[in-house]
Input
Amino acid sequence: MKKTIFASGSLIILFFVNSCGSREYTEDGIKEIVEEINVNLEQAVGEKFNWGSPEAYSLFRAYFYGDELIFINESYTYKIPAEASNRYYFKDGNILHIKSKKIGYVQNNESGKGKKVKTTLEFYSDPDENILLYDKLANNQRTTLSNEEAEEIFRHV
Output
């Protein structure tokens, strides 16, 4: 009888610990993590980096608590006329939140006139890269985030 009570109690405690541990990866839990990073960012150590490819180049500052990457502030310039400002938030090596603002210029081949395209994106994801919530605007019009776009963002980071 005592073994059964002990085993049942152990299972309840194990269930409680597991449910509490996964709770931080809810939308509200991730928002709390992001706010905590913002509040404590001055205490983190920042390092500057440069990165380039045939399509674009990036200047960014990565912030660390000890060895753990917690935040990246990136200025990203495309070879086509466009640039972006990106902010990435991390916990335990996983990206949890992104805020991105991109301004691009598209030229109409027929008229020769250019048009500015402004895109903003904000999303929250869990450690398995499942997007929990996103908001994407293109020229102030709400639009969808495709799976291909999300995969490209995760590959970039």
Notes: Residues 2-156 form one domain.
